[in-house]
Description:
It is a single chain. This protein has about 625 residues and is mainly beta. It is about 5% helix and about 35% strand. It is built from six helices and 35 strands. A nine-stranded antiparallel sheet has the order 15-16-18-19-20-28-27-26-25. Helix 5 (about 405-410) packs across helix 6. The model is unreliable at about 1-35 (pLDDT under 50).
Amino acid sequence: MNKNTLALAITGVLMASLTGCNSSSDTTTSTPTSTATGTALSTPTGTDQTSFMVATDFSVPGYSTNLEGATTTIQTASVSPAQAQPFGFHKLVATGYEDNGEIFGWIKDKNDTGLTFADGSKYICNGTNQGVGSGLDNSSFIQQQDGKLRLVAQFECQVGAMYTAGLSQDAVTGALTMTPNTLSFISQKGEFGGYTHCAGMVTPWGTHLGSEEYEPDASKDSQTSTGVTSDTYYNATFPFWTGVVDAAQSNDPSTGMNPYFYGWVPEVKADGTGFTKHYAMGRLSHELAYVMPDQRTAYMTDDGTNDGFYRFVADYAGDLSSGTLYAAKFTQTSATNGGQFTLTWIDMGHTDDATVRAAVAQRPVFTDLFNTEVPNASNACPTAGFVATNTQAGLECLQIKAGVDPVIVSRLETRRYAAMKGATTELLKSEGMTFDAATKTMYYAISDIRKGMLDNDANYDKGGNNDIRLSGNKCGGVYALPLDANYVANSMGAVIVGTPTIYDAASPYAGNTCDVDNISNPDNINMIPGTRLLMIGEDTGNHINNVYWAFDLDSKQLKRVLTVPKKAEVTSTAWYEFNGRGYLSVVAQHPLDGVTGVSPASQETVLGYVGPFIKN
């Protein structure tokens, strides 16, 4: 195995600052801790690139680990009933797991009947078979009021799926396992089915809050015509409505499908009951909706090209069914190292789930909402009353039709409406968020700093605001947003950005195009409460192996905690603590996808955890 004995523990050690990192206004001092023992983790090379590799020297202040029997590879050692589970990366479950008459990740149609491919095999959402999608994504570990643990897992296929199951924790070892005879499918048919579930979180009130990413562009998709649409993601939802997996099938109005059914924030209880979609929060390419401790404020990231950033304030704590939606306007104050900005918030109106759902149930079409016209050669709208916007849909001239409620438009076409109101729609690949309660700071990952985030880009800024004017960085960055007493973000600045790098063909790192000792395309992120450790998971093709990093916000040091097999991305990162044991959850999506000579089992999406960490 390729181990770097010179790599240092993240705590209590000094090292040079990383290129591309800059400090934020966050200056809390950390308490030194002793250097951990164990084995450090370097960039995988050779056969290590096809394996899970974990740093057994990783430590969390306030916790200890059992290194007896620990290994840098996936932990498969038996657990002594008299001691804590050996530290490592422990597989909890993978797609295809069978229990209680269900198969974990099996996609189902509008009648909750499992879908099969033409060859008769089951449509398992694992990201490596012939289905459309990336596999298992966010998986919430939830401790219920009775103390029992449950898993709610969502799947990032265009026909979305969710499952729930019990989790068991060994009282002595801390080992987590799936509880037999508890796996069950969560039906979403009452809310038009699920769609491309990506990131999620456990709400402060103990439910699973999910997402529907890459919402269909309704200007391309009509319920009134028959045929394959120009939106491939929308086409991939056809099997939900028809019960048949057939790449050649067409949009059929008689099935009842509609693009406005998708792009919302779903919520469900830990036991799989009470599934709903929060239509009041707006429709966009939801990567993540993250709820603040006030249980009213939620920030929402919009994952795509020329997208926005949003804040929802619910009317009542613990209830996201009604409230006011806001879109961010960015004012750039610095272009250095990923940029600094002030934020103002544009009011998009107040409504509730029931009102918007009623409009969605009417199966509207794009032309019910907007008049359109072709922009002129100057990228402006020829006719008064039309507004030029540049969003993920490109440059458009839009006008809300007479008699149409603008608040309904703000929810069905959130990004377009935000652009019409003057909000910034120039962000690229907005990803995960997390919150540090100690400093009241939110952290926000932007996976790629290019396209609309450049200064006056010829394609992505034409007809738009050009609010963001940065130098390109394909490796992305993570930003800090201090929040005020009302959980409002008024500024944002980068705390770490990646470094584009070209390695010589003879280098062991050839094929990596972002610095292997820095982040690349940050995606899911999480804080470890009570520490200064910001955990950063990658979704990148610029590193051969995606990394789960620990970033010390004080020292600005990075440490590899886990690397996943090549072709896999790191998702569903979160910190959980149950009964004095801490766990870092990780999903490795679509490992070894397209790699020949490997077993099908090794290509299943895996959910596991790094740990356990024993509270001192």
